[in-house]
Design goal:
It is a single chain. The chain is α/β, with parallel strands linked by helices. Helix content is 42%, strand content 14%. Strands 2-8-7-6-5-3-4 form a 7-stranded mixed beta sheet, with helices on both faces. A 4-stranded mixed beta sheet has the order 1-10-11-9. Helix 4 packs parallel to helix 12. The longest helix is centred in the C-terminal third of the chain and has 20 residues. The protein binds pyridoxal-5'-phosphate. The site of pyridoxal-5'-phosphate has 14 residues, from helix 5.
Length: 398
Amino acid sequence: MADWLAALDRRAELRAKAGLTRRLRPRAAGDAVVDLAGNDYLGLATHPQVTAAAARALSAYGLGATGSRLVRGSTDAHHALEDTLADWLGAERALVFSSGYLANLGAVRALVRPRTLLVSDAHNHASLIDGCRISGAETVVTPHADVAAVAAALAAAPGRPAVVVTESVFSVDGDLAPLARLHAVAREHGALLLVDDAHALGVTGPAGAGGVAAAGLAGQPDVVVTATLSKALGGAGGVVAGPAEFVRHVIETGRTFIFDTALPPAVAAGVHAAVGLARAGDDLRAELAERAALVVRRLNAAGLAVSAPDGAVVSVTAPGPEAASAWAADCRDRGVAVGCFRPPSTPDNRSRLRLTIGAGISRADFERALETIVECAPVSARSELGLRAPQSRTRVTP
Ligand SMILES: Cc1ncc(COP(=O)(O)O)c(C=O)c1O
């Protein structure tokens, strides 16, 4: 075998020894698995109004956008979606991308000027981390949700442009960032606040408008919001929303917007329909909140350490990467899909199951799934105390 392939094999063996193998698994259409792994929080991915809207645009425009919007033109589906998203988020203007990942790369890059300091939460998603890296700006990684550390980082860089970068509901443990306090500290130091609302959009805030809106920060001139359209909205794509001048800057300079084929018009149309349903979905959000509380109660009662969820993401501590994989596999064998997060996908080297709660799952299936998770739990994951999640250790370097 060629040297480089043999070297890759050795690295795969090392990952296997550390319990970090990742494998693709088949997924059949309409499989009977109870899904606590995906992010279809409101059950909109398969909603008939959503799929019908996408189908109409599919026959009108074809499968793909066939090019970037600057080259190929901007469809009504894109504009309608952007206007609706801006209105929902309370922002002056919104711009959609072909993924949330690319929206984050584009947003961070566009906020950086010469000498900009980025102050990034230790639990931030990989797309924000990569955005900081690709921007080339100096980045200070602050301990998770530590407003004093953010203030200290900003105070140590007087006179420099700065951006505080955070998620709202964090993808790892489902906790909510202290957005109002972060904004106050950012404003005090003349810094901007970039919030990735991926796991909050559709789930929290007035009419589901997300964590930024819930914190009363919608439309603030020093706040930029990003989100993915692939979670509560059940589709694909990402959005950057903020002041009109900033969005124009992204359109004219953002590499992940300019040099990327646009979001397919059919997806834009489907997501547009999903936004309407999400805005009207207070009953679904109430059901999500109730289910989140139920997960915590049931799993805590079984002695499992569970995070305190602020949205629809709950993390359950696993004893280690191998135990986490085996636990998730046992659940899957019994018809329950759960997320399995192991290093390097965790910011603190802790392994956990990640449960994403969907309002679209029947209550009976949901409760059965919780029983399955408890029954499959490794003995070492249980404590007598029914602990809440232990304090995360945080990274302090990028
Ligand atoms: C917090 C967060 N931001 C961004 C993304 C990326 O979004 P997308 O999947 O649309 O690329 C994800 C996950 O997918 C996420 O969890």
